[in-house]
Amino acid sequence: MAKQFDVVVIGAGPGGYIAAIRAAQLGQSVACIDAWSNAKGGAAPGGTCTNVGCIPSKALLQSSEYYEQAEKHFGEHGIGVKGLSLDIEKFLARKETVVKQNNDGILYLFKKNKVTFYHGVGSFSGQVEGGWGIKVAGKDNEELVARNVIVATGSSARALPELPFDEKVVLSNDGALSIPSVPKKLGIIGAGVIGLELGSVWRRLGAEVTVLEAMPQFLAAADEQVAKEAAKAFAKQGLNIQVGVKVGKIDTSAKGVKVAYTDAAGAEQSLAVDKLIVSIGRVPNTNGLNAEAVGLKLDERGFVAVDDECRTNLSNVWAVGDVVRGPMLAHKAEEEGVAVAERIVGQHGHVNFNTVPWVIYTWPEIAWVGQTEQQLKAAGREYKAGSFPFMANGRARALGETTGFAKVIADAKTDEVLGVHIIGPYASEMIAEAVVAMEFRAASEDIARICHAHPTLSEAVKEAALAVDKRALNF
């Protein structure tokens, strides 16, 4: 006899596991199905983010940052290092430990919140009395009945046409996190978040990194002033980033990869590398859902079609995260998961796409929320902007990390904050203040009047808000 649940969540990535926990907190009987496995075949919930995305990449970024600091910057502090070496096996093993800690943490949270977890592939089997039939294909096959279904199956790396990932020479984010030795030459196609972060990891460890980007502008989604500052910082570090590139024929062999491309000036070029990371976006995971059997509507790009509240075309079937429209960000998925769980019980879940923060965990870090100057100019909206350099920030000087600035953009008439953009040390942590301000529709004057502890990096945000009214105090 099929087991019945109020809510069945397919996928245990950030959107799925958070939705399951929130639904359980609201008194629902909940099951969550996820197919990720670790090296030993055990359950590894957390999706791409935990297993081959956000978490392992941050672990490697931290380790590689320590290595570069020891190699190049400890001397500035009077700290001498002799016999510096890199144990790549231990370097990668620590990453795996961090991933497992997060996997185990999610399994603990399921148990704590009385969420029934199934390790396997979840799919629709049809509409049945009491809701939807859900099949679990795994070590133990199961049949479930769900009154509500939340699809949270995430996304996968997009491959180049006729160039599949072998994860040995041609790498997705998965393979790029597990290169067994530091490549002498590393190529990356795509200068987005993944390309820049993984490029930074291997550059710090000694690889010669070349990034090929099709867009004519570097970091086109970021504020133009921030993108220019980032380009200068990355070039100084040794990242060779080429924009406006058209990639042509790619030849692979056991020895490496040769990429033919046309540069921005129209000249034919060739790049020979030991490894090639392809980071050109992601595609939604809808294969295997058996969507056609129940008539679940997908859009022209393969995403599950949903309305503004994440409802699909099927009664009591919802979808969240990377598998639906909107930014492919773990925290966006989490917010949608919470909102859907609350909507199922009649509450009014809240997700504001205008205040979803973006972060690139390079060094300097890059973070922003809201609109850029170029977006506001294109919309014809009058605004005023103020910025403050970390060079003039006492804490940044003490850290020895003075690259970058904080920037606040506000409406010219109402002074409402329209966007905040930060490039500098720990920008990922500072952006939260801006998100709170924008959620409460604060004015730049509100941020400027709030007492910030001294000395802190966050004072740069306060000073940028003061600069909107041309009254910065320390610059």
From TrEMBL:
FAD binds at residues 58, 122, 153-155, 322, 328-331. Residues 5-337 form the FAD/NAD(P)-binding domain. GO terms for cellular component: cytoplasm. The keyword Coiled coil does not apply. Disulfide bonds join 49-54. The active site is a redox-active disulfide bond. This is Dihydrolipoyl dehydrogenase.
